[in-house]
Specification:
Layout (H helix, E strand, L loop, with lengths): L8 E2 L4 E2 L5 H4 L9 H8 L7 H4 L14 H16 L4 E2 L5 E8 L2 E11 H6 L2 E2 L6 H14 L1 E2 L3 E5 L3 H11 L5 E4 L6 E7 L2 H12 L4 E5 L1 H17 L11 E8 L5 E2 L1 E5 L7 H8 L3 E7 L10 E6 L2 E7 L14 H11 L13 E5 L4 H9 L5 E5 L4 H9 L10 E2 L10 E2 L2
Parallel strand pairs: 6-11, 8-12
Antiparallel strand pairs: 1-5, 2-3, 4-5, 4-10, 5-12, 7-21, 8-11, 9-10, 13-20, 14-18, 14-19, 15-17, 16-17, 16-19
Helix pairs in contact: 4-6, 6-9
């Protein structure tokens, strides 16, 4: 398929909470918490977006989130939110700016309508495989609501013109400004109503050779597939209709923070700790670091925690190829030479002997899970870089599973994109 030469985006009439209700409506994304966590967080707050994105909380405990009645409830609740004025549609097409501040660092994103054809042609690039069952779940949610309730998370190549625009808005009073519960991060939101600014954003994106999905591969796939369905069903489709676009928040690549995504394993595949360390020494320089938590300091260095002690593991020359965009990744090195070759873990997605811990929880969480006896060992990795992700996406390759952990996560409910 021929890739178009530029990214096609558009402003849209967002559906969003009034300023005084945003903190009651907004929520964490649907895929970062279990149903019972959502039930607890929503509590008796009937304005919580969880009633739309996790509508199983409105049913007795135990109902499947994939039950047809759950999807119907999402649509019923979505309509109720609009009827009661908890979500109100803007009267003008516009872009939005969404800023997140974590640990004193702020990243500024543009909320845009991205074109489904750019996803289908590969101009919107992905770095993860998607699962059909998860795609189908999100497609049902988009279809039943006729809307993208939650945004996808994009990265775009750094752009000085857009950066100047973002900084200009950042100096003004935001529409929303709050500290989110649980994560404790600051979230701010501005409206880009000015026609000249809207035109400028559209023009700058039209110069971009590619956009990159950072987080939300299943939402992207689902949105693009539903848009294609609607276009096929519309004999008069021109490609400019609202259903041809899906909602994304696009950040400059250099601003994004990728945290380490670490591994914990239940056993040593029948080996003693001494034998395990001996096998590791064939491909790694193994050095004892002691009882204090040890964090990898650079690419190709790993931290191992076993039997109450931390070790550094440095991959030896020749264990990876610098010119191989996949083979040079630490997630690939550790999967090949430790998890597969020594521990016999072949499939990271399905093997029950391994679990994964996002970097926000810190290496203390790895230590806790091993010390509790639940796990035998933990492996900490140096974070993947955004440049590595872009290089892999550009090469048409796919990242190994469980390679990236972006933080902070986008809050849901600040703005919604309707497909009509």
């Amino acid at each position: 398929m021929i890739t178009s030469l530029m990214a096609t985006i558009k402003p849209f009439k967002g559906l969003r909470p009034p300023r005084n209700l945003v903190e009651q409506v907004e929520s964490r994304p649907y895929d970062v918490l279990e149903s019972e966590e959502a039930r607890a967080e929503a509590g008796d707050n009937e304005m919580s977006l969880y009633h739309i994105i996790k509508p199983e909380i409105d049913f007795p405990v135990g109902i499947s989130e994939y039950d047809p009645r759950v999807y119907e409830k999402a649509a019923e609740n979505f309509q109720k939110f609009q009827d009661r004025g908890w979500l109100v549609q803007d009267d003008k097409e516009m872009y939005y700016i969404y800023a997140q501040t974590m640990n004193g660092k702020t990243q500024y994103g543009l909320v845009i309508g991205a074109h489904t054809k750019d996803y289908q042609s590969g101009l919107i690039k992905k770095h993860e495989l998607t699962r059909r069952d998860k795609e189908e779940d999100r497609m049902k949610h988009v279809r039943v609501n006729n809307a993208n309730i939650e945004p996808v998370f994009f990265a775009y190549p750094d752009n000085t013109v857009l950066d100047a625009l973002l900084m200009r808005y950042a100096a003004t009073e935001p529409e929303y400004d709050f500290i989110a519960p649980i994560d404790g991060f600051r979230h701010q939101f501005w409206l880009v109503k000015d026609d000249a600014d809207i035109a400028l954003i559209t023009e700058e994106f039209a110069k971009m050779p590619a956009l990159y999905i950072a987080d939300g591969h299943h939402r992207s796939a689902a949105a693009a597939l539903v848009g294609a369905e609607k276009a096929a069903q519309d004999p008069n489709s021109k490609g400019t209709e609202e259903y041809n676009y899906f909602m994304a928040v696009a950040f400059q690549a250099s601003q994004l923070t990728i945290l380490d995504y670490n591994r914990v394993v239940r056993d040593l595949n029948g080996l003693t700790t001494e034998a395990f360390l001996g096998k590791l020494s064939e491909n790694f320089v193994v050095e004892l670091q002691g009882a204090d938590i040890y964090k990898p300091a650079k690419l190709h260095e790993f931290s191992l925690y076993v039997d109450g002690l931390w070790y550094s593991l440095t991959a030896k020359p020749g264990t990876y190829k610098e010119d191989d965009p996949i083979g040079v990744l630490d997630v690939d090195i550790s999967s090949r030479l430790i998890l597969d070759q020594i521990l016999g873990i072949k499939d990271l997605r399905s093997d029950k002997r391994i679990d994964f811990v996002g970097g926000l929880r810190g290496l203390g969480e790895l230590k806790r899970r091993v010390d509790s006896g639940e796990m035998k060992m933990a492996l900490a990795l140096y974070p993947v870089t955004m440049q590595q992700i872009m290089d892999i996406a550009d090469s048409g390759n796919i990242m190994p599973p469980k390679a990236t952990w972006f933080e902070p996560k986008l809050r849901s409910g600040l703005v919604i994109h309707k497909l009509d």
